[in-house]
Amino acid sequence: METKTETFKAKASNGTPQASSSHVEKFMEIIIAKNPGEPEFHQAVHEVAETIIPYQEQHPEFQKAKILERIAEPERVIMFRVPWIDDNGEYQVNRGFRIQMNSALGPYKGGLRFHPTVYLGILKFLAFEQVFKNSLTTLPMGGGKGGSDFDPKGKSDMEVMRFCQSFMTELCRHIDANTDVPAGDIGVGGRELGYLFGQYKRIRNEFTGVLTGKSLEWGGSLIRPEATGYGCVYFMDEMLKTKGKSLKGATAVISGSGNVAQYAAEKVIQMGGKVLTLSDSEGFIYDKDGIDVKKLAWVMELKNIKRGRIKEYAEKFSADFYAGKTPWGVKCDVALPCATQNELGEKDAEVLVSNGCAAVAEGANMPCTPEAMHVFLKSGTLYAPGKASNAGGVAVSGLEMSQNSMRLSWSREEVDERLRNIMKNIHSTCVKYGQDEKGINYVKGANIGGFMKIARAMIAQGHV
Ligand code: NDP
Ligand code: 2IT
Fold it and tell me: What is the pTM of this model?
């Protein structure tokens, strides 16, 4: 925590004018004092404060209404015990959370993360980002996030089911289709959502769109599994177009090998690019011949069904595996960090820039550190923050909610077309609000574009 605080004081990473800089630091002192020990939350708030505080100085109505102060305070935090019994008959206890961050634009909406690193600070950062992201989609969704420090890795299906049932037994008191609609995130995919939905239905006796990312047979939407990765690549394509470039023939470095990474890779391949890397928490694989459709299908089976490790790819396809390393040193035209927060630091960013990387689009939430972001902004590298470039997942979740309410389902083409248009619109919003001396600053554009709608709604709704 101390290191992060130091970083905030040391430099404004976002080109903040000097006069506003001390207001940002004062604001951050209060945030840090009120939310001790939550460095990821401080980092996310700081990034937004750096653009919104100077902007608010020209909009006293937002300042007067203390919109930023209110947005940084969750409407509600729910924290609960999750007891369950493992396959050996032993009691286990985890901690469950749901952060209901902001409901100005619609029901709370955002994923659930099951990972041993989960604690309040991680989920508050994710919920805070989600509020802006959901606003950018233009769909009627507020922001929230939840999860647990439960680790699904190495657990049997029955253990995962018992955990999910216990988690939902408490969570179901706090959510419904018009109040709060969770979905997946790290460690929560189709299997977990199935068990969670089943338990909600049993307890509440309601078949309703209370979760998104459901299977197609029971209320899911086509393209939801693909949406985050596809959307991220659509956004990357829009950014490249502004420089007269495209993904055709481009080399791409991708981190992660979960849901977002897999479908980002699929879309890069479909758009004529060559994917060189994938990773997991044990290291990365580098395939200089490119990961093609067949190899990617093998990765999907490895990760989604066999639940294996990415290093097995290197053995299967004679590629290189770098244990304990991230892939940012591999020379590429574009980079897509799709694993986790703070996975790409200042040195990594410098290497990417010096290797000629033209664009970075975040598939993960906050994968670049503030220092890395500063390197990209300073060098003029096209850089999209996750709240803009990974909004495709929650956008299709919003479309799933609409289909559930209407009790009908749209075709694959229709959902994909809507997704593509939403990503184009988010790009246009970033261009509209993100102009600065160096061209388009997508961080500024996404923050201001997202903020405007929420701020107006909060003012209209009174003291909320
Ligand atoms: P998955 O659980 O499907 O995959 C996560 C991937 O990231 C795995 O390859 C995992 O490796 C790797 N990873 C996780 N933690 C670490 C770590 N500490 N260090 C290195 N690698 C790590 O999750 P998703 O693909 O759904 O999520 C990836 C990112 O995208 C997250 O930041 C998430 O918040 C974000 N996101 C997800 C959306 C969605 O719709 N799913 C929507 C928008 C953003 P390992 O298996 O070894 O842990
Ligand atoms: O970070 C995210 O946007 C997600 N994990 C998806 C949230 C959702 O409700 O689909």
Answer: 0.96
